[in-house]
Design a protein that fits this description.
The chain is an all-alpha fold. It has a single domain (2-150), classed as Helix Hairpins, CATH 1.10.287. The chain has helices at residues 2-25, 27-42, 50-77, 86-114, 117-128, 131-150. The protein is globular. The model has no long low-confidence stretch (mean pLDDT 92).
């Protein structure tokens, strides 16, 4: 029983290792993480119900999980130094398509939930009256850009 418990917790180590691998090597995962943090920050301006919050969390988790699955499939079918078979290409394209479908669904949910014109004008007013908030948002945008595009991917 003790070995089973140890193996159970060891599986979490493997899972976290996979997440870190994806963050280090995949630009799109880093992009989606920055988008997720931005969405979570914007949520503070809204009075979402528990169900609406759950939709947002599921969208964030779904997109990142889809990106990780895409990375797993790409890594599994890539054979370095050999030509990619049509089946491997199809697997990679389908995995990328799955990410696209999940991302578009998350975008539609985001537009639906965050598209309240009154709240959007309140957000604009908030930033218009607070130069420090504008500076913070600008710093966040620059840091996000550097995180997404400036991180040198480990060897693929």
């Amino acid at each position: 029983m003790r070995l089973e418990i140890k193996a159970f917790f060891k599986a979490f180590t493997y899972a976290f290792s996979g997440i870190i691998h994806g963050i280090k090597r995949e630009r799109n995962i880093r992009f989606h993480l920055c988008a997720a943090v931005t969405v979570l920050a914007l949520m503070s301006f809204y009075e979402f119900s528990s169900s609406e919050k759950c939709v947002i969390y599921l969208c964030i988790g779904g997109v990142i999980a889809a990106e990780l699955m895409n990375t797993a499939i790409e890594n599994a079918v890539d054979i370095h130094g050999k030509e990619i078979s049509p089946f491997a290409r199809a697997a990679k394209d389908c995995a990328a398509g799955a990410v696209l479908v999940m991302s578009v669904c998350a975008l539609v949910c985001g537009i639906t939930l965050f598209g309240d014109i009154i709240v959007l004008s309140e957000i604009a007013e908030y930033f218009a009256c607070r130069p420090l908030a504008i500076a913070g948002a600008a710093v966040w945008a620059v840091l996000s850009f550097l995180f997404v595009f400036g991180v040198k991917s480990s060897e693929k």
